[in-house]
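Hello forum,

I keep getting stuck at the same step: I have a sequence, I want structure tokens, and every attempt I make locally crashes halfway through. Rather than fight my setup again tonight, could one of you with a working pipeline run this one for me? It's a single chain of 322 residues.
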Amino acid sequence: MKRAETVTFGGSDLDRAGEIRANPAALAATKTDPESRAVLFWRGKPLLSLDTPATLVRLPLDHPVLRHASQDSILLGREDGAARFAFELSNWVPEDLDEDQLGGFLDPSEQRHPDLPDDMVFAELRRVMTWLSPRDAELAATGKAVFGWHATHGFCACCGVETDMVQAGWQRRCPACNASHFPRTDPVVIMLVTNGNSVLVGRSPGWPDKMYSLLAGFVEPGETLEAAVRREVFEEVGVRIGAVEYLASQPWPFPASLMFGCAAEALNTELTIDPLEIEDAMWVSKEDMLIAYSGHHPDILPARKGAIAHFLIQHWLADRLE
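Reply #2:
Ran it on my machine without issues. Output:
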């Protein structure tokens, strides 16, 4: 698919600087480089400037707000030869914090730190992802995903001892048994299942009313992508799949997946929905999907912009999947 890397969170060609992660001297030098910058997060929310267009904030490493950040930082990579580090400010609690809005399907809340200008806010990445440039989106997604992994993998899976962050944030090492642990990315297939002029879509409980998206599911150990596509579609809606073709991928930091977008040909159209998997599913004609994408369909809202499902359906509608 020629336009594959134009998907949100992909295609910015960030220099990840992997060769210096294990080099203490090189890392120390980047920390004193005046061109190095910090990307700040609060509970997984990146710090943005709300100017038009919105941008990911890059702070000098001596900015006062970093005194309140966690000591462990993650080397995200380099821009124009200068390092970019991610820092967490999750111990800070805003005075007007509304916990009920956090962690929802689309968190609209914004948090402002007193040490930062009023136009800088922490905002939910799922809500703002389409506002950002490819580079800003990649930096934000990387930081969010790796910090999320550290938050849930603080203890050794081999012996249970608390582990240490090493390799500039890209590894945890056990001081007791010396086991090494690396950030996890879960492979997920997401399927553009078609039959003639129609595409198969479904919805999960808790989604916004009328929103439908492509079927998706995790790849199991020992499976190929093609086998996972066939299994997931049959499990969720009882449709048998013939030919499967890879189209595009997307890093999806909610919390840490790699979405493999695939085109799949349906061999039958009758739907037998598994209510434990999804709430509803249906075939939608290209004409009806065009109306949904224009925002005027009475019964269907498309997948959110920025998600690979929206990207794939948009290109299917425009006959640009090759």
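Residues 4-146 form one domain. If your local run keeps crashing, start a new thread with the error log.
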